[in-house]
Amino acid sequence: MSKQKPAYLVASSFMPEGHGALDPYGHATHPIMEKWGGELIVAGETGQFMDHFEGEWKDDARFTLFRFPSMEALQGFWNSEEYQAIKHLRTDVIPPNFTFAVEGFDAEEWAEQNPDHAYVQTD
Q: What are the Cα distances from residue 39, in Å, to 1, 12, 26?
């Protein structure tokens, strides 16, 4: 039986110089996220250091990462009436670049299902 995998909410927004305050969004979102087991891992902010290696990235974009205990919890948060009612506190202030959800990876489970793969460690 599969273990519950964490899920990640990956977001990027444009944060142009002089953008409006995000404090109301943060204060409103925190208790909703906590209710669904969400945890802020990387807080995208104007002063955030980023070292861009590949691909296209616009200068005023920032990156935010949240971890949830499961995809079900992440989707519950995102689709909740509570979050949908306050999401505009972010999108009215800074335009989104992208937002997506991705399920975490369990290396042990994957190795069991793919024993002949080159990445599987054998002793």
A: 26, 16, 13
Find out whether 44 and 64 touch, Cβ atoms under 8 Å. yes
Residue whose tokens read 């499961």: 70
Element spanning 70, H or E: none
Q: 26-45 burial by CB neighbour count: b if 16+ within 10 A, else e?
A: eebbeebbeebbbeeeeebe
Closest CA to 90 of 25, 37, 6: 25
pTM of the model: 0.83
Determine the pLDDT at residue 80: 98
Q: How confident is the model at residue 123 (pLDDT cuts 50, 70, 90)?
A: low
| CA angle, residues 101, 107, 111, in degrees to nearest 5 | 130
The SS3 of residue 93 is: coil
